[in-house]
C-alpha cells in the first residue's frame, strides 16, 4: 500500500471515529494516556513565560463554545474562501495566546500523532488555566471533533458586547440551557486577566449617551481608570479585570459589590435584581463560587453543533483531501 493511500485511510478512520463518539471523561486513556498531563505541562510553561496568557487561553473556551459549539472553529485562520471568527467584533484585537494552543498541539502530536482534537485542547487548557491560578480543578469530558469551517458572521451574531447588560446576558445563556446562576458564575472567569480601554471608554465618558461616566463606578476606582484610559489615549492599553488578576478567586465578585467592576457587562450583574443575589453569595463564599464555576464550565463544554468534523493536524487550518492525498491546507 502506498504512503499516500495509507494517509487517506488514516484520515477517514479518524473522521469516522471522532464523529461517532460521545463526550466522556478519560476519552484518551488508551489512545493518548498522557494527553491531560501534557496539556497541563505546556500550560505551566506558558504561565511562567507570561502570567496573563493562561487567562487568555481560558477565554477561548467561551468564544469557541458559544459559536456553533465547542469545535475549535475560533482557532481557524481566514482563507480566501472563508472569513473566520478571529476578526469578529468581539474577538479582533481581543482574543490572544493562540500560540499557546499551537505549542500544546505540537507536544501532543509528538506523543500521539493525529489523536487529540484541538477542540479538546481548548477544554483541557481552560480547566488548567483555572487550576494553575488557584481556582477549582474538575474532570473534563473529551472526544470532540474539530470543525471544518468557521464563520465571522455567526460570531458577530452571538457574542455579547462589553456594553451588554444582565438581561441580555441572561437571555443569551438561556439559549444554551445555561441558568442565571451559571451565567453569573461563568462571568467569574474575569477573576483573572485583563481588558482593553476600548471596552470601557463609554463607561468612563459617555454612559448611555449621557456625556457622563457610569454613576455606579466607585470614585477612587473611576479616577484610576481615567488615568489608565484618558480620552484620546491608546484604547489598546489594558487594565486588570479585578484586584487580583493573576489569582483565580472570588475577588471579582467583591469588586462588583464595591462598584469596582471593570466592564459594564460585569458591573451590571450587581446592579440587576435578577443577578445581584448570586454576586453577593459568591463574594461571601468562594467555595460556592468554585463549585458553580466548575459545573458551568462542564455545561459550556457540552455545547455541540452536531456537524461533521475531524482531528486537525494544525489547529489553525483544516485538513484537506485532494486527489487521494492527505494535505494540510
UniProtKB/TrEMBL annotation:
Cofactors that this protein relies on: Ca(2+); heme b
Residues in the signal sequence: 1-20
Binding-site residues, substrate: 160
Stated family: Belongs to the peroxidase family. Classical plant (class III) peroxidase subfamily.
Record-listed Ca(2+) 1 binding positions: 64, 67, 69, 71, 73, 85
Domain Plant heme peroxidase family profile: 22-319
GO cellular component: extracellular region
Annotated disulfide bonds: 32-112, 65-70, 118-315, 197-229
Protein name, as recorded: Peroxidase
Site positions per UniProt: Transition state stabilizer: 59
Cofactor: record remark: Binds 2 calcium ions per subunit. Binds 1 heme b (iron(II)-protoporphyrin IX) group per subunit.
Function, in words: Removal of H(2)O(2), oxidation of toxic reductants, biosynthesis and degradation of lignin, suberization, auxin catabolism, response to environmental stresses such as wounding, pathogen attack and oxidative stress. These functions might be dependent on each isozyme/isoform in each plant tissue.
Source organism (scientific name): Raphanus sativus
Coiled coil, from the record: none
Gene: LOC108849600
Keywords of this entry: Calcium, Disulfide bond, Glycoprotein, Heme, Hydrogen peroxide, Iron, Metal-binding, Oxidoreductase, Peroxidase, Secreted, Signal
